[in-house]
């Protein structure tokens, strides 16, 4: 029985991904309703997929409701909701969640930097990189790309040397 439930969960996750590709939030909501009616166990993986669907199709309230109702969250859960808030310009909500997250990873830190850049808060984005390195979280190439964009936007030739020493 457990294998069947797992397969059903994977099937629904696949359907959700297709609705994202097709940019069809109504179909996604219909799939969510079908999941609820079917009684299938909605674990972390499936909930993360639903949150991602809602976040990327503009239904941030629904994404947040799912996040708040999750009894167990993983890094993907946190990153999905933080990134959604940051990308939609709700950086203070994103920061609040970031501060609550048990162990932010490179995806989380970078999502915050992207959000700060979008809001024109370039110095804060650069400061986030310094804090990230101080927290012993390894930046990615994408992280450095975001910070370089921040530096370019600030039109600075001298940036905190800790960024480049790292």
Automatic annotation (TrEMBL):
Gene Ontology molecular function, alphabetical: RNA binding
Family annotation (Pfam families): PPR, PPR_2
InterPro entries with a match to the protein in the record: PPR_At4g14850-like_plant, PPR_rpt, TPR-like_helical_dom_sf
Keywords per UniProt: Repeat
Domain of life according to the entry: Eukaryota
PROSITE patterns to which the protein is assigned, alphabetical: PPR
UniProt keyword Membrane, yes or no: no
Any one Gene Ontology BP term: RNA modification
Start-end of each PPR repeat: 74-104, 105-139
NCBIfam families per the UniProt record, alphabetical: PPR (TIGR00756)
PANTHER family hit by this protein: PENTATRICOPEPTIDE REPEAT-CONTAINING PROTEIN (PTHR47926:SF347)
Protein's name in the database: Pentatricopeptide repeat-containing protein
